[in-house]
Design goal:
This protein is of the alpha/beta class. The protein is 42% helix and 17% strand. β6 and β7 form a beta hairpin.
C-alpha cells in the first residue's frame, strides 16, 4: 500500500515542485555564471550585482558620533550612534516615526521636509549621516543614490530618478541648516553585513555575507574590485567593494509548473522569481496553490475539498501555526482538515504537513545554493577555523518552524562535507542601525 508521504512526493515530482528535482551542483554553476555576467555588465543575466561603492575595510572610528536613519516599509527610525573604545555601539536619541508616504500620498517636497522634521532633534550632533534606504535605488559612485521606484505602499509624487542624499541636503539648507553634511546611502542587506562584522570584532572570519529572508529576500557580499568589470574605475583599483546581488530577482532557479501558475497570480508576474520560491510574503500563496492542485489530483478528502474552496489567502504565519497545532480549530488549515471522519481528517493533516514540509525543504535547499554560490565565487571559507560570517535577518529565517533545521542539514551535508566550505550564521542586535553607522563613518 502506498503511504501518504509517497503519494505527496509523487505528486510534487510530477509538477516539478519536489526538492529532489533540484540538482545542487548544476544550480550553483548557473547561479555563479549569472553573478559573473552581472559583474561584467552583460545583459543576459537576472542578477543585477549592484555596486554599492561601500567598503567594509578600515577601523571603525571610536568616540565619533554619526547620525543614522533607517527608512523601512512602515517605520522611519533615527538615532545617533557612537562606538566606544571597545568598538561597542552606543545608540542614543533613538526615535521611531511613520515612514513618510505611508499615511497618504506626499509631494517630493513634503517627503523631504518630513525627514528634516524628524532630524531636527539630532541634526547638530554630527556632520556624517548614514541613511539606510530600503527601496530599489541605483547607488552612485559618490555614495548617493537615485530612486528607481518606491514599493511597500509608500506613495510620493515625482520621486523617480531623484538623488536622495542631495535632495535631503538641499531641504536641510532651505530650512536653515547650513552646516556641511555628508550622506552615505545604502540598503538594509548591506547594513546587515556591516552590522554583523561589528558584532564579532574578535572572531576570525575570512569574509562576510549579508542575507535577508523575511517578507522578501536579498544577499550581499564582499567582492574584489578587479572582478567588477562593469565599473572600469573599480576594476582598475585595489581593495574590495560590497556588492548588492538583488538575489530575489534571480530567474534561473529550477521552477516547477505550480511556481509558474502562482507567479501569474502575483501583482508583478515574471519578476522576483527566486523571491517567490522562498520568501515569507509568497510562501502562503505558493503553498495554497500547491494544495489546490493536490485537491484536483485527489489527495484530499471531499470534506477538505469543500472547506479549502473558501480559503482565498494563506499567510506564512498560518502555515507555521498549522505545523505547531495541526489539530487545533484555531488554525486555518487545522480547521479545514478537521471535517469528515477521523481517518479522513488524519490523512488530510498528514497530506498538508508533507506538502508544507517538502516546499519548505525546497526553500532551504535553494537558500543553501544561493549562499554556496556566493562563498564559492569569493574563494573564501575553505578553512573551518576561519569561516565566512553570514549575518542573517528576517522572520522567515528565524521564525519558520521547519526551515532552519533543514538549512543546517544542507550546509553540513553539501557545503561542509562535499564542497569543503564553511560558514557561520550570526544574528546581530540592531544590525541595520549599527551597519548604517559604520557605512556613514568609514565611507
Amino acid at each position: 500500500m502506498i503511504s501518504i508521504r509517497e503519494k505527496v512526493d509523487a505528486f510534487l515530482k510530477k509538477y516539478g515542485m519536489h526538492y529532489s528535482n533540484i540538482d545542487i551542483n548544476e544550480s550553483i554553476d548557473t547561479f555563479i555564471e549569472d553573478m559573473e555576467k552581472g559583474l561584467n555588465g552583460e545583459e543576459d543575466t537576472t542578477l543585477k550585482m549592484l555596486c554599492t561603492y561601500i567598503s567594509s575595510e578600515g577601523d571603525i572610528p571610536v568616540n565619533e558620533p554619526v547620525i543614522v536613519m533607517d527608512a523601512g516599509g512602515t517605520n522611519f527610525r533615527a538615532a545617533v550612534v557612537t562606538f566606544d573604545d571597545n568598538k561597542k555601539a552606543i545608540i542614543e536619541d533613538f526615535k521611531v516615526y511613520d515612514m513618510p508616504g505611508t499615511k497618504g500620498e506626499l509631494s517630493k517636497e513634503e517627503f523631504f521636509n518630513t525627514i528634516v522634521e524628524y532630524l531636527k532633534p539630532i541634526i547638530h550632533k554630527s556632520s556624517k549621516i548614514g541613511f539606510c534606504f530600503s527601496y530599489p535605488t541605483e547607488i552612485l559612485p559618490n555614495k548617493d543614490g537615485k530612486l528607481i521606484r518606491f514599493n511597500k505602499e509608500v506613495k510620493v509624487r515625482d520621486m523617480i530618478g531623484e538623488e536622495i542624499g542631495a535632495a535631503l541636503l538641499k531641504a536641510l539648507k532651505e530650512k536653515g541648516y547650513v552646516d556641511d553634511k555628508h550622506i552615505v546611502l545604502l540598503n538594509d542587506t548591506v547594513a546587515t553585513l556591516l552590522g554583523g562584522k561589528a558584532e564579532c570584532p574578535d572572531r576570525n572570519f575570512e569574509s562576510y555575507i549579508g542575507f535577508i529572508l523575511g517578507t522578501g529576500t536579498n544577499t550581499c557580499y564582499i567582492e574584489e574590485n578587479t572582478n567588477i568589470k562593469k565599473s572600469k574605475k573599480l576594476a582598475q583599483s585595489e581593495g574590495s567593494t560590497i556588492i548588492n546581488i538583488e538575489s530575489g530577482g534571480y530567474g534561473k532557479a529550477a521552477r516547477g509548473n505550480i511556481d509558474a501558475i502562482f507567479d501569474k497570480t502575483t501583482t508583478d508576474p515574471g519578476n522576483q522569481k527566486f523571491e517567490k520560491m522562498i520568501s515569507g510574503a509568497y510562501q502562503g500563496g505558493l503553498i495554497l496553490e500547491v494544495i489546490r492542485k493536490a485537491v484536483d489530483e485527489g489527495l484530499f478528502s471531499s470534506a477538505f475539498k469543500e472547506n479549502i474552496k473558501n480559503v482565498e489567502n494563506l499567510s506564512s504565519k498560518e502555515i507555521s501555526d498549522f505545523c505547531y497545532y495541526p489539530y487545533s480549530n484555531d488554525t486555518l488549515l487545522g480547521k479545514c482538515s478537521n471535517s469528515g471522519s477521523i481517518d479522513e481528517s488524519n490523512n488530510d493533516k498528514q497530506t498538508l504537513y508533507y506538502i508544507i514540509d517538502a516546499i519548505i525543504e525546497r526553500s532551504a535547499k535553494l537558500v543553501a545554493i544561493n549562499l554556496a554560490s556566493v562563498i564559492l565565487k569569493t574563494g573564501k571559507g575553505k578553512n573551518p577555523c576561519s569561516p565566512v560570517c553570514v549575518t542573517a535577518e528576517g522572520s522567515t529565517f528565524y521564525k519558520s518552524k521547519l526551515f532552519r533545521g533543514k538549512l543546517d542539514y544542507y550546509v553540513k551535508e553539501y557545503l561542509n562535507d562535499k564542497m569543503g566550505i564553511y560558514c557561520e550564521f550570526i544574528k546581530a542586535e540592531n544590525a541595520t542601525l549599527i551597519g548604517t553607522a559604520i557605512a556613514g563613518l568609514l565611507n
